[in-house]
Amino acid sequence: MQSFEIDKTDLLRIKTALDGDDAELQEVLKDYHASEIAILFEKLPQEAKERIINTLSTEIASEVISEMTEESHPEDLLISLHPEKRSDIVEEMDYDVATDIISQLDEQDQQEILEDIDQEDATSIRALLSYHEDTAGGLMNSEVICVNINLDKKGALDEIIRQSEEMEEFYTIYVVDDHKTLQGIVSIKDIIKARSEAKVRDLVQADFVYVKAELDQEEVAKLISQYNLTTIPVVDDDMKLLGRITVDDIIDVMEAENTEDILKISGVSEDEELSGNWQDAVKSRLPWLIVNLGTAFLAASVIRQFTHVEEELPIIVAYVTIIGGMGGNAATQALAVTVRRISLSDLSDRQTYRTVIKEFLVGLINGGANGLIVLIFAIFYDKNPMLGLVLFLAMTGNLVVAGLTGAGIPLILKRVGIDPAVASSIIITTFTDCIGFLLPLWLASQLLL
Amino acid sequence: MQSFEIDKTDLLRIKTALDGDDAELQEVLKDYHASEIAILFEKLPQEAKERIINTLSTEIASEVISEMTEESHPEDLLISLHPEKRSDIVEEMDYDVATDIISQLDEQDQQEILEDIDQEDATSIRALLSYHEDTAGGLMNSEVICVNINLDKKGALDEIIRQSEEMEEFYTIYVVDDHKTLQGIVSIKDIIKARSEAKVRDLVQADFVYVKAELDQEEVAKLISQYNLTTIPVVDDDMKLLGRITVDDIIDVMEAENTEDILKISGVSEDEELSGNWQDAVKSRLPWLIVNLGTAFLAASVIRQFTHVEEELPIIVAYVTIIGGMGGNAATQALAVTVRRISLSDLSDRQTYRTVIKEFLVGLINGGANGLIVLIFAIFYDKNPMLGLVLFLAMTGNLVVAGLTGAGIPLILKRVGIDPAVASSIIITTFTDCIGFLLPLWLASQLLL
């Protein structure tokens, strides 16, 4: 099986069916999984999407809207539907998904949707809307299977079957006491296997990993990945069970965090939508470029100080650009390794120290090796061994600076609590440009003129 | 709860306990989860790790070794253990984890381990070893819960309980016919809820997503994420069930693929270990830097062609470095967005076309805006409006080239089947350096001299 790609044939088929009557459309839609229809939606105009949603059963329609990516704006589709259809769809959704979609609407539209739906659902969604979207609370689903610790096998099984009626799938069963305080977890397997007189109390695993609702979603992702969990319970300060986060929610968080990292390192604003239009791309990138223009002027002002060197040794200009550029590249290498390492695990003091020493040594060796090549070139092509020596020293020095800043700046940012990924290659390159221009020109003015 | 970080206190506690007797050590180890001991292992010498593993129960020891990261080389620890202890530990492991660890050893050590363990386990692990580690087969676990489609409720439940004895957790139950051909899936919930005379045949969901053993792991990850699956069955060409892949295995794949992307874009060899030593870092990065040194010479040779311009207009050198550098940064922005977008989903022809047009427009606007700033600077600081015009045109031109190469090169690579992430900023920057040096110098020679 291959992952589903939007194919012209599929799109054409849907478009042709849209020209026909509802029965025809329904027949064609039967061939597609809800998540496939969600992908096709990316290519269809608003009216077509509304018509399809109205043709589908509430169950499938709700799945399709749940599967739509944030960038295809499921909230716009939802709000445009007939209030009755809309309420049916929202009531069918998982609370966490419904909350994510509704949270994108303005206050008034949110209220309109919530007033129309079943009151119990509305209360749950309102509670979820109160958590910040980047925290465990914003990520959790409040629908959990949860049994009282005093139940016996039969009572627990009945309760599980009753509660699971509304859920598509469940993994872990949570055990609470009479005050709804979380006591542990129990697996359905252990309940089935237990003797009929067994109580939940005898089967509960009291040693489990949980998170508070305020915990940042990145920390939740680290915990789930570190302890290989399928699901993690979310509690309030009194250990009352609020909901659970499942591993598939975490996959979306990880994808988003990774996209953010790669964009920030490259000097793109973290909220640029990958498939966004050019106007948004300009808004996201131009500020960084203008900041960089300022720093480039700074670097270029170094060159302005040494016009006397350039006049006497015009060839040095070509070499200066090489040394500046090489420093930028080496710094980007050190930066990528360090940022990725920090984002996967937290570094101890000793690890931090060793990372900086490592990048210093890497800079020294790589700078020396590249410096040697430039030295040889200057001797044989420009017939100027002293120039070669100047370039060798400048290249080595600049690559050491590249290693130290590429690793050091994200590490320092992490210490002071700033996201290390904002130490984009654009900022680090400023250092290596300045040093890369200054070193050869200053050494030349000292040793050659 | 916070994710576990290696703390000096924990390390000191373990080290002190290592000086004491086994009972003392056991007492201290009780306070740590298996995955926490695996993290502490990163900081402990080989003898200490062996001693701890020998002190722990087989069950916990097996979990600890399973949780060790690839970079802490669990295979070295495993092979150093007493053969009897080692066999007990391997037999306790999930087949897919055992296979991953054993596959890192040389042929002779692999045979030694496999000859010592239970024959059924050895056969399963040998079968898994035959799949390439980057495919569905290399990722799957062959331990699945699987029932015959002709069983009734009681028979199915008995079978599930019997098969689940050896498994820590299970999600989906697979249904096969008498020829072991996969017929569908069934949830434990549906079996429990079914009337006692129901057959598995009545409960099976015949519409499910599966993969062939040869499918690339990245495709498996896309499927699991696209269809929000917890687990996916792996089959051979005759639809015989071989095993299953769970979502937590996919998290590790995603982490690894993301690390690869970020490193490749930054010109670091994809297999550099993030916490590796400086010698390996030099080996991984120096080749890229030397390639770049060649391309930098190419770019610098452009400058050598225009020494007459520099002599008559020395100030242009400072501006040339600004325009070259800005082009590199804009190209890195376009590259990051495009590479990340490609790695999350496949682009249609139309999307490809629109991406290139978008980056062209972004380059035009961002280039024009930055060109304007430089133009103003040249007018007021250098009192040279014609120089300003030259710089404006050169900046705009270079940022258009940056957008087109930053988006175009990864898109072309993808089309011809090369990983687009290797279009590292180092390679893209060569284009913008050459054009960034050529444009202002050539325009100046035409318009100013």
UniProtKB/TrEMBL annotation, chains A, B:
SMART domains linked: CBS (SM00116), MgtE_N (SM00924)
GO terms, molecular function: magnesium ion transmembrane transporter activity; metal ion binding
Transmembrane segments: 286-303, 315-339, 360-381, 387-409, 421-443
Gene Ontology cellular component list: plasma membrane
Gene3D superfamilies, sorted: CBS-domain, MgtE N-terminal domain-like, SLC41 divalent cation transporters, integral membrane domain
All residue ranges annotated as the CBS domain in the record: 140-201, 203-260
InterPro entries, per database record: CBS_dom, CBS_dom_sf, Mg_transptr_MgtE_intracell_dom, MgtE_N_sf, MgtE_transporter, SLC41_membr_dom, SLC41_membr_dom_sf
Keywords: CBS domain, Cell membrane, Magnesium, Membrane, Metal-binding, Transmembrane, Transmembrane helix, Transport
Lineage: superkingdom: Bacteria
Family per record: Belongs to the SLC41A transporter family.
Job of this protein: Acts as a magnesium transporter.
PANTHER family: MAGNESIUM TRANSPORTER MGTE
Subunit: Homodimer.
Protein name (database record): Magnesium transporter MgtE
